[in-house]
Each structure stands twice: as structure tokens, then as C-alpha cells.
Amino acid sequence: MDIKQLSLNIIAWGIKQGIQDVYILPRGDKIQVSARRGRNRLIFTELTDDEGEKLIFHFKFIGSMDVGEKRQAQVGAVTYRINDEDKRLRLSTVGDFRQRESLVIRFLHAFGNSQENYFLPQQLRQVRERVKHRGLHLFCGPVGSGKTTLMYKLAKETDRFQQVITIEDPVEIEEKAFLQLQTNAKINLTYDVLIKACLRHRPDILIIGEIRDALTAQAAIRAALTGHTVFATLHARSIGGVYERLLELGIQQREIAECITGIIYQRLLPCKATFHEEQSGLLMDCNFSKTTDSNWLNNLRKVWAYGFIDDQTFEQEKEQ
After folding, report:
1. Other Cβ atoms closer than 10 A to 119
2. Phi first, then psi: what are they for 164, rounded to 5°?
């Protein structure tokens, strides 16, 4: 089997099907290549262990990952040339207790070409206006809900003479107008180290790919307290969960009150079939009042009443 051609076929299939993630996972004594669309799983093919290992090796190699490391989780990114177009992919691997690796391939939209469907467009208009203020703007929501895309779009809409610097692990979206930096733990280029270095460049907007530890959280807080506009993602299940997470990371209550300008939480929900066939929509919960108040349930009930989502989605999401 030609592994390079197989990888091209997988990417071409993912593009044609409009898939967000392709999974290469051990299933019994086979390796299954599949994807999800809504609540359905699509099977592309099944491979032998040897074929699956070679396929994952190929993606790790082109994604500049350590091909000899199977125990630790790794992330990488690559621009794939297919059908005379560049497709940006984010790669993530992890090994199980038997050291059998799995790989997830995230398909990233060409920046500026993605057409996000917001159930309540007035929420996005509000966010556009409020992020013009200095301070720390936190973007949260599940994996794949478009947090990075939204941060980039909001930054791109600012005055073109402004300096925008991004710090990511890895860089997901390539944008020539931004100064884009990538972490590298092997040479001690961590989030907190790069944040400190970036402040010397006096960025008008600093984008931090993810606040994942206490050092990064403290560095983001310091950047916001010194008068910078900072966009960052944070894993939390709700507006209130953001405050809990920051406290868990050792941020003081007074620092949170001083520097957080806004919190934007969003989820990607499947549209009702009669509304938009095979499409999803984004629903936001925005807070710019420095409180833990949430309008998520009210907004969810509103889009359900409008008929944008079905009863099953409403029941599932209101428990989140």
C-alpha cells in the first residue's frame, strides 16, 4: 500500500465530506480511519496494525513531531497541498497502555473563507464592539467550537496598522499580517516565556492560544494589567467555570476583577434539519460585567423556540 497516496485520499475525503476531524484509532486488531458528522460516524477504511503505524508515522513526520516517541501525547501542524490548494491540518497523537498510537487530524478552514452561522447574530455584533476595550478577553467552549477562528477574525478586523502577535502550540491558522510564534518546550519557549518576550514588541493585540497552567495564567494577567489587549482561550464549561478555573490556577480575586474585560463562551450545535440541512450553528454566552452571570439557558431556549434546534439538542444542551 502506498502510504503517501492513502494519506492524500484521506485528506481529499475529509475535504469532500466537509469533515472537521478524522480519527485513526485502534479497533481490536485493526486500525480504523473514521470521522464524525453530527451524531453519526463515517468509516473511511480499516487497516492492519502495520499499515496504520506507517500512516501515523507519515503524518507525524510531515507534522514535525517526534516520530520515535509513542508514549507521550504530541501535537503538530502541517499545510497539505492537495488539488492545487493548501489545506491546514492540526495533528494530535497519543499512545495507549500497549503503546498503540492513535491520531486525530483536525481540518482547519482557510482563514477568512469560513462561513460561521450564528443563531443570534446580535451577540457577535456585541462582542465586536466590546473587544475594542483593553484588558483580558477570554474565549471558552468545547474543542472545535471555533474559539481560535473567532479570536483571529476579531483581531483582523482591527485597524490594519496595529501590531498583532500570536502565541500558539502549534500555529493553527496562518495569517501573514500577524507576527506568529510557536511554543517549543525543548528549547524552553513556553507560553509564559514568549508572553514576556512579546511585551517588548508592544503588541496592540496579543493572542494566547491557550491558558493551560499557572505560569501562563499569571503572564496573561500581567500583560492585561500593563494595559495590553489580550485574547486567550481557556477550557471551562461555562462563564462561571472560567472564574473557578482561574482561581484554581492561583489567580487572585482582585486580579481577576481588575483585568478581565470580557468572557465569550460558545458552543457548536446541530441545526434542525428543516432549518439548515447538514449544518451547525454557533450559540454564544457573553459576559462583560465582571460577574459570573450566565444567559446560556435563556439563549438556548430562544433558539429552540425559533425552531433552529430540535427537542433532543435542547434537552442535551441545557444540561451542559
Report:
1. 21
2. -110, 125
| CATH class of residue range 3-108 | alpha beta
**What does the pLDDT look like over 6-18, one tens digit per residue?**
999 999 999 888 7
Reported as a pLDDT band with limits 50, 70 and 90, residue 251 is very high
Query: Tell me, what DSSP letter sits at residue 237?
Result: S
120 in Cβ contact with 296 (< 8 Å): no
- Spell out the CATH class of 121-317: alpha beta
Model pTM score: 0.82
What single string gives the DSSP state of each residue in 30-71? EEEEEEEETTEEEEEEEE-HHHHHHHHHHHHHHTT--TT--S
Q: Helix, strand or coil for residue 256?
A: helix
Mean pLDDT taken over the chain? 89
Number of Cα atoms under 13 Å in the Cβ half of residue 228: 27
Q: Domain map of the chain by residue range?
A: 3-108, 121-317
Any long-range contacts for 6-10 (C-beta under 8 Å, 24+ apart)?
Answer: 6/51, 6/55, 7/55, 7/58, 7/59, 8/82, 10/44, 10/105
